[in-house]
TrEMBL record:
It comes from Gossypium darwinii (Darwin's cotton). PROSITE patterns: DICER_DSRBF, DS_RBD, PAZ, RNASE_3_1, RNASE_3_2. This is Dicer-like protein 4. Residues 66-156 form the Dicer dsRNA-binding fold domain. Residues 460-639, 680-823 form the RNase III domain. InterPro entries: Dicer_dimer_sf (IPR038248), Dicer_dimerisation (IPR005034), dsRBD_dom (IPR014720), PAZ_dom (IPR003100), RNase_III_dom (IPR000999), RNase_III_sf (IPR036389). Residues 1012-1088 form the DRBM domain. Residues 349-460 form the PAZ domain.
Length: 1093
């Protein structure tokens, strides 16, 4: 067994407590020494005690300690304030001694255990408890260390074990790890070492502005390998300022042939324009050398973006080599010697610039640098009607010459015409949605200024503003294309691989909600069918171990999914294509310096450095969220079967067999005796579904406090029903509100899928009237809540008396039963959900968790909110304090449940704050829903074939076969008296009886022939939760040496309160023999009249 670790918190400076801790450590060391040096591994057990040992772990327990362990196990079963699970003990006498019968709680995997005859009551109790412990361990309800299952129990076939598993899940979720991002394979293929002729696939990029207020130069993408079909016609809507947008479309345009010198020119042109838009500081010098970056390039992508000329049809383009060569012929890129040569131009076709006299043809449609403004400009034209003496637009009566003189700038050639110039743009992330819903696009007039030529340096000839407009879009286009190509390499699902921080117009969060819901349903179904003996609490724990973030992270990294994740917003200045290599070289030795752990913080996106290996920090929760989002993407794109295949690939088992379902349906017959206690038809009419296996419906209404039927309750069905309802409602909301943001979808889902919403459905449908329970307190709480709901139609979600959890559980368990009875036909369950859950479906009263509401309100106004919780007796008292402006507010409430007490207090405080006029600045969820467009709700992804559930044989209930009786054949010649009670009410005939008597398990082995009739009668009464049989000596006669005794046994059958069975023995010479004969008569009657078969 793993060693336990303890942390003691003591007051500093308290010597008494410190000495106590020291004594604890000394005692621990002494015990460790004793254990280490003991000479025998035998456990000292009393002479009368047996021991049970687990071979795999060596854990053992004696019959004496088994009693406390059984009580401990029962206390760990699911329970609430109305139901406290504990074992019940019944004793009977047998010829071989005392027999102890244990009745376990209804939600335990076994219901009853009987001991072998023992010499005393205590010995019988020990023997029965040890047998119970052995059975529970064999069923998996106890671990190999003979302890109740805990959250840390993992299933080897589903979960992975990590070397860092000692850290808590919360720490793992918040800790970031450094991972590389995958570079799309189609963009990695290089042509650097190829021969003279290079063939590249061309894809024309079409720009469609809205409104058409800008002109764009045609560009095309050239790559060595063809783009996949899913990407070759990518469409992308880029959002500009003032609600303007540009729709971009890729079009395959054949194959282009490049000679070696053309490839060099194309690479130089790409390097040049990336310097302009990404690192223009390099252009400030008089001479710039091109091509050096390709000699030692660390680029991870290889593609070209070049201006093109369209042919008559768009599927064929040619490179506009005229523009490429004209730009590269600029003096900026010539050698100093060549650039120093002075060309003679006629005075009427040239202008004086900072760097010499240049022809007007070269100046128009070029890029210049204005030295007095320290900025780059596109020159669109020469303004012949304006010169230095023309009025300056912002200075009133001053002209350009006078305005510049005020700044100490003196023009030598004021008579020269001015240059009409547009400032060089600043790159933005155009993937982020900056366009409000339902807003119209407005034209934005371009901004131009007039510049004196002699204050400008000519940088790039032929580099027009149309080229600049196109270049401002290309980085965002290529970033999206990279993401798409990465996604295609995984499974054609882009949405699942971009997170909210990417600041693009879609992300994984909506799909994550859907995938999370399906994952929980699929795992819940698998576990429910695989472990038919585990209780609801243990099923929940095992599901949590499978779907928690820590396990999903381990499974994802094992499959290397993290390399596909894009977790950063597109930063144009961290864009490093071919021609603009990343300056930060990252190696194994320098990785720790380049990416220090301190950069992995909440705002790491702002400070994170992009390196040559595409490293980025990822939170573990982000990786686990991507797994859920991928599940959601498979459901939306391909359906349940594809999502199941993906889960199987990643390492999560969700498969099941139809035979498992049929076994569970067949086993539900054991609940059929309860059908006499209610009208099943009425309940089926309320649910709108006729059951094939009515035992499932009966099980769905049995509260765990009800234990008069041989065990079993609704909790397992509740576990399954909760999972399927969660998915159905998530699918409903996901499809109904397509424009709802991920956070709003999550809020709406939490409002809809909760116990209180389901409880209100149970009351509206009158399902509570069919609940079987043996708790007076629960019945009173239900009646109180039902009265409040009935009399308060405008009730708030957090008002009135406490809602009994059993009401919501009842709805979930009924849906779990329907799901099983339909053979997992979600289409039928979907239709029933739409008809039954109308209060949830209508979403007429959307109320968020009051704790969250009051916290968000406090954050909005920068208030200090405090919740002070104290235990007062059995209740929790909660004080909520906040200073609302200058008004201190304090609200107090109490409840037996800590969470409920905090929720109630938060709700009361929120009501007070709203009464004072405080309201959140953002729209409420109710307001958001009213303004959100709606689609028709639909069940998403279901494509499974329902299982053919075998219909049970239709037989009369009175003729149902039960387990073989413990009772031996009674000799009809033996005389036994049967009489009615003093009230004169006759025994109920078998044909009209409303119940069946259950016999103990395992009685077919013939064991009953060695047991007395009294012990068998005691056991039957215990199994059926009747009072123990009452044996009385009603007659003594004869002299003392020939005395005879007549015994009477009384059996009260609780299912028939107007019947009391009395059986009398024949006179016997001993009291024991007379009592035995009376018991034989009672057993004979029960069998002879058809109650036992």
């Amino acid at each position: 067994m793993p060693l336990s670790e303890y942390a003691f918190l003591v007051n500093s400076g308290n010597e008494k407590e410190l000495d106590l801790i020291k004594n604890f450590k000394k005692d621990e060391d002494r015990m460790n020494v004793e254990i280490s040096f003991r000479t025998s591994t035998e456990v000292s057990i009393g002479l009368e005690e047996r021991i049970y040992t687990v071979d795999s772990s060596g854990a053992s327990i004696s019959s004496g300690y088994s009693i406390s362990l059984l009580h401990h196990y029962c206390s760990k079963l699911p329970h609430d304030e109305y139901f406290f699970p504990k074992p019940s003990f019944y004793y009977s006498e047998d010829s071989g001694g005392t027999i102890c019968n244990i009745i376990l709680p209804s939600n335990a995997p076994i219901n009853q255990i009987a001991s072998t005859p023992q010499s005393s009551v205590n010995a019988a109790k020990k023997d029965a408890c040890l047998k119970a412990i052995e059975e529970l361990h064999k069923l998996g309800a106890l671990t190999d260390h003979l302890l109740p299952l805990q959250n840390s129990v993992l299933e080897d076939e589903t979960l992975l074990v990590s070397s860092d598993s000692g850290s808590s899940e919360a720490d793992e979720d918040s800790r970031g790890e450094l991972h590389e991002m995958l570079v799309p394979a189609v963009l990695k293929e290089s042509w650097t070492n190829l021969e003279n002729c290079v063939l590249l696939y061309a894809y024309y990029i079409k720009f469609i502005p809205n409104p058409e207020d800008r002109s764009y130069k045609e560009f095309a993408l050239f790559v060595k390998s063809p783009l996949p079909k899913e990407a070759e016609r990518m469409e992308l809507d880029l959002h500009l300022s003032r609600r303007r947008s540009v729709m971009t479309k890729l079009t395959p345009s054949g194959v282009a042939e490049f000679k070696r010198e053309e490839i060099m020119q194309a690479q130089h042109f790409q390097e040049m324009f990336f310097k302009v838009i990404l690192d223009r500081s390099e252009l400030l010098s008089e001479f710039v050398t091109l091509g050096n970056v390709f000699l030692s390039s660390s680029s991870s992508t290889f593609y070209l973006l070049l201006p093109v000329i369209l042919s008559n049809c768009e599927n064929k383009v040619t490179v506009d080599w005229g523009i490429v060569q004209r730009c590269l012929s600029s003096p900026l890129f010539k050698s100093p010697v060549a650039a120093a040569k002075i060309e003679n131009f006629p005075s009427d076709v040239c202008l004086h610039l900072v760097n010499g006299c240049r022809s007007i043809r070269d100046i128009e449609n070029s890029l210049v640098y204005a030295t007095h403004k320290r900025a780059f400009y596109f020159i669109t034209s020469i303004v012949g009607e304006k010169n230095g003496y023309s009025p300056y637009r912002d200075s009133g009566t001053l002209n350009h010459l006078e305005h510049l003189n005020m700044s100490g700038i003196h023009l030598k050639y004021p008579e020269q015409p001015l240059l009409h110039a547009k400032p060089l743009f600043k790159l933005h992330n155009l993937l982020h949605n900056r366009k409000p819903e339902d807003s119209e696009s407005n034209e934005l007039e371009e901004y131009f200024i007039d510049l004196p030529p002699e204050l400008c340096q000519l940088k790039i000839i032929g580099f027009s503003k149309e080229i600049g407009s196109s270049l401002s879009l290309l980085p965002s286009i290529m970033h999206r294309l990279e993401n798409l190509l990465v996604a295609i390499e995984l499974k054609h699902v882009l949405e699942a691989l971009t997170t909210e921080k990417c600041q693009e117009r879609f992300s994984l969060e909506r799909l994550e909600s859907l995938g999370d819901s399906f994952l929980k349903f699929a795992v819940a179904r698998h576990l429910f069918l695989l472990h038919d003996a585990l209780d609801e609490g243990e099923l929940t724990r095992r599901r949590s171990n499978v779907v928690n973030n820590s396990n999903l992270f381990k499974l994802a990294t094992r499959r290397n999914l993290q390399v596909y994740i894009r977790d950063q917003p597109f930063d144009p200045f961290q864009f490093f294509p071919l021609g603009h290599p990343c300056p930060v070289i990252c190696t194994k030795e320098t990785k720790g310096t380049v990416h220090p752990q301190s950069s992995c913080q909440v705002d790491h996106a702002k400070s994170e450095v992009r390196c040559s290996r595409n490293h980025h920090w990822l939170q573990k929760k982000t990786i686990s969220d991507v797994v859920e989002a991928l599940v959601g993407a498979f459901i939306v794109d391909r359906g349940f079967q594809a999502a199941t295949a993906f889960l199987r690939w990643i390492g999560i088992r969700v498969d099941f067999q139809g035979s498992q379902l049929n076994s569970i349906c067949a086993a539900s017959k054991r609940f059929m005796p309860l059908s006499s206690l209610l009208d099943i038809g009425d309940l089926e009419n309320l649910l709108g579904y006729q059951f094939l296996h009515k035992g499932l419906l009966l099980q769905a209404i049995v509260h765990p406090s009800f234990n008069r039927h041989g065990g079993g309750c609704y909790q397992r069905l509740e576990f399954l029903g909760d999972a399927v309802l969660d998915y159905l409602i998530t699918s409903y909301l996901f499809s109904l509100y397509p424009k709802l943001k991920p956070g709003q979808l999550t809020d709406l889902r939490s409002v809809s899928v909760n116990n209180k919403s389901f409880a209100n459905v149970a009351v509206d449908r009158r399902l509570h009237k069919f609940l079987m329970c043996d708790s007076c307190h629960l019945n009173e709480a239900i009646e109180k809540y039902v009265d409040f709901i009935t009399l308060s139609p405008d009730r708030g979600l957090f008002e009135g008396p406490k809602c009994p959890k059993a009401l919501g559980d009842l709805v979930e368990s009924c849906f779990g039963a329907i799901l099983l009875d339909t053979g997992f036909n979600l289409n039928r369950v979907w239709k029933i959900m739409l008809s039954i859950l109308d209060p949830i479906k209508s979403l007429s009263s959307v109320q968020l968790n009051p704790i969250r509401e009051v916290q968000e309100l406090s954050q909005c106004y920068n208030w200090d909110l405090q919740f002070l919780v104290a235990k007062v007796g059995r209740n929790f008292s909660v004080d909520a304090k906040v200073n609302a402006g200058d008004v201190p507010l304090c609200v107090c409430s109490s409840n037996i449940n800590r969470k409920e007490a905090i929720r109630t207090t938060a709700h009361q405080l929120y009501v007070k704050l709203k009464a004072l006029g405080y309201a959140p600045k953002s729209k409420s969820l109710d307001e958001v829903l009213k303004g959100s467009p709606k689609n028709e709700a639909k069940l998403i992804g279901y494509d499974e074939t329902p299982i053919d559930v075998t219909v049970p044989d239709i037989i009369g209930f009175e003729n149902m076969k039960l387990q073989e009786s413990l009772v031996n054949d009674f000799n009809p010649k033996t005389r036994s008296s049967k009489k009615t009670t003093s009230s004169g009410v006759s025994c109920i005939s078998p044909g009209s009886r409303p119940f069946e008597v259950k016999a103990a398990r395992g009685s077919a082995s013939g064991e009953s022939h060695s047991r007395t009739a009294r012990s068998q009668l005691y056991e039957i009464c215990a199994i059926n939760c009747w009072k123990p049989p009452l044996f009385e000596c009603c007659k003594e006669e004869g002299p003392s040496h020939l005395r005879s005794f007549t015994y009477r046994v009384i059996v009260e059958i609780e299912e028939a309160p107007d019947m009391i069975l009395e059986c009398f023995s024949s006179p016997r010479t001993t009291k024991k023999a007379a009592a035995e004969h009376a018991a034989e008569g009672a057993l004979w009657y029960l069998k002879h009249e058809g109650y036992l078969q």
